[in-house]
DNA sequence: TTGTAGGCGTTATCAG
DNA sequence: CTGATAACGCCTACAA
């Protein structure tokens, strides 16, 4: 079934069918209905490969997600899809492995599918400016830290200020009287990862309040409950006097909480816990966990908006920094009270 | 940059470049290296639209996921991707809205992209045999219930026996002496959904043990902690003497647990809780929640295997039923003990 | 308002 | 071993 068949079957020319299908140019109502009938009857669907080939540009947007299992991304992905579809474009969700080079994957996709634009979600980009330039189509980095100093005019981004927000969380714990505060995050070797940024905020808060930074209170761990659990167990063995845990993600916080609770200690009675992200699970944990809640859906929406502004040429590269909010649910309490 | 340019730049014919790129036919080593050099130098990537157009069949596999936010799918998706890539095929992950008709979406994709095969994950398929036949390429239904009685030779599936597994969970609670057991699941209007199937198992267990089925103990709720929470609150108001909750997903179970714990009751002291699926979060909840654990990764792997067997014609449609295991972590206890 | 023809970048057939 | 050349299905001037 191709456009030629439809043309023959409905007794019109090929281009007329094309015009009907694309709502372009003028077609008489009679012809239009006639063609549509045949299209319906034979369940005809145009071949997008041929279309893309001809059009030198598909209207597809790609979303490159690093870590599809991250529950914080779930709602964001949904929102990106909603927003992209709202603009009449199909969305190609490409999940990239944690270790793999997503920008190369995207580079390939772009060339292959003639993408309209790309949104990168999650991960860290230790890519040179040149790589970015190679991409050569509009793209937005969402929730992403760039490792190298890159000319901000070559890319757009939607982020939060990790240093500042981690500072906020740590300061909160300090204001409650905590001084033995542990910090859990992922610290890969590359610099300027999310984990490293948040560590900076953690350290900054400690320093500003005259609390010496103790590396033995910091543990490297994956963004998962199981990893948070074992890391916290290690911490508790090393630091018998630790009174608070600041986890760089809610998933870690949940693992940390489990480690604490299953040791017979209480939250926040013995140890206060605060997470990061604002996923539903943290709210429904018992006790409900305090967290630094990121406006994920708003960030997703903004990402799509920026991307389409870039596509339509309505604006140049932009960098939007969203504020997160400290959500207090009672898993942190004043020390000694 | 197209194949023509590469041909010109390396001083050979177009088809030679094509042969080099596809490792097809015989090419002298000298020409091969010469061409590859140019390809590398200009970072040439073939246009897949043109390729697909010509090839009448791309090697792309599509994964249609209903409910990407379902944490139970996370690992399955990863495994599907791994397995598909292992076989040298790209995977297109298409997330479909909860309400939308995924088989039509797939139908479109198949026609558009000349897919090799499709895996459907999650949701309920109330589609006629005819729809299935229209698809016309190999496909596997994973974790999916078909509503209508469909000729089993027209599709493949990888599932668990929902009735049996729900029966298992309920029987377990009954064996612990519970009789006032509530059940939480999603009950859409269509028949034979996952929720309805598990309800059947629940009822079957009750009946076999001579416990009258009490509809007021059954609540309709979404597969999320928040929905599980509110549904459980409703249940607790209606049924003061309920002693156990069987939730059709771990996400619901977590919400249910929160409702119970935040009311000042204890688990399993006052109320026993058991979930379904076997997600990490249920294990790290406090208390750790019992569950019917599905072998998600194995199911994902089997799905891909079956799909490729179909594609290579090595076998005909198959239906594999996996066993789930009852994982006891202490959130259920003998009544009155 | 409608039809014809050329070309998008590949692959595959078929002579050299 | 290599190079023309004809499709693949569609869009879009351009001509009617």
TrEMBL record, chains A, B:
PROSITE patterns per the UniProt record, alphabetical: HTH_LACI_1, HTH_LACI_2
Write out the coiled-coil annotation as residue ranges: none
Q: Which CDD domains match?
A: HTH_LacI (cd01392), PBP1_LacI_sugar_binding-like (cd06267)
Domain HTH lacI-type, by residue range, is 1-55
The GO terms this record gives for MF are: DNA-binding transcription factor activity; transcription cis-regulatory region binding
List UniProt keywords, sorted A-Z.
DNA-binding, Transcription, Transcription regulation
Query: Which InterPro entries does this entry report, sorted A to Z?
Result: HTH_LacI (IPR000843), LacI/GalR-like_sensor (IPR046335), Lambda_DNA-bd_dom_sf (IPR010982), Peripla_BP_I (IPR028082)
The UniProt entry, under Pfam families, shows: LacI, Peripla_BP_3
UniProt superkingdom: Bacteria
Does the record carry Signal as a key word? no
Designated name of the protein: LacI family transcriptional regulator
Its source organism is Paenibacillus faecis
């Amino acid at each position: 079934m191709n456009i030629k068949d439809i043309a023959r079957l409905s007794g019109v020319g090929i281009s007329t069918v094309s015009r009907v299908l694309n709502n372009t140019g003028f077609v008489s109502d009679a012809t239009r209905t006639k063609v549509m009938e045949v299209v319906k009857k034979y369940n005809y669907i145009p071949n997008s490969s041929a279309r893309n080939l001809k059009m030198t540009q598909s209207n597809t947007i790609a979303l490159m997600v690093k870590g599809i299992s991250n529950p914080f991304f779930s709602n964001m992905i949904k929102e990106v899809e909603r927003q992209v579809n709202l603009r009449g474009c199909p969305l190609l969700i490409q999940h990239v492995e944690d270790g793999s080079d997503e920008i190369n994957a995207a580079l390939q996709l772009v060339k292959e599918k003639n993408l309209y634009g790309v949104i990168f979600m999650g991960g860290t980009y230790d890519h040179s400016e040149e790589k970015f330039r190679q991409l050569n189509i509009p793209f937005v980095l969402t929730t992403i830290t760039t490792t190298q100093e890159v000319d901000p005019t070559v890319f757009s981004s939607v982020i939060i200020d990790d240093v500042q927000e981690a500072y906020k969380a740590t300061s909160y714990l300090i204001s409650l009287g905590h001084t033995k505060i542990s910090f859990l995050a992922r610290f890969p070797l590359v610099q300027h990862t999310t984990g490293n940024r948040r560590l900076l905020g953690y350290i900054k808060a400690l320093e500003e309040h005259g609390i010496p930074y103790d590396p033995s209170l910091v543990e490297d761990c994956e963004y998962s409950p199981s990893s948070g659990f074992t890391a916290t167990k290690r911490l508790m063995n090393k630091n018998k006097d630790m009174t608070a845990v600041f986890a760089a993600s809610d998933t870690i916080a949940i693992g940390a909480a489990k480690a604490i609770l299953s040791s017979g200690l209480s939250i926040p009675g013995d140890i206060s816990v605060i997470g990061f992200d604002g996923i539903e699970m943290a709210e429904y944990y018992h006790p409900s966990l305090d967290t630094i809640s990121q406006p994920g859906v708003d960030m997703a929406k903004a990402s799509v908006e920026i991307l389409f502004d870039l596509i339509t040429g309505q604006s140049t590269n932009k960098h939007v920094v969203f504020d997160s909010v400290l959500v207090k649910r009672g898993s942190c309490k004043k020390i000694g009270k």
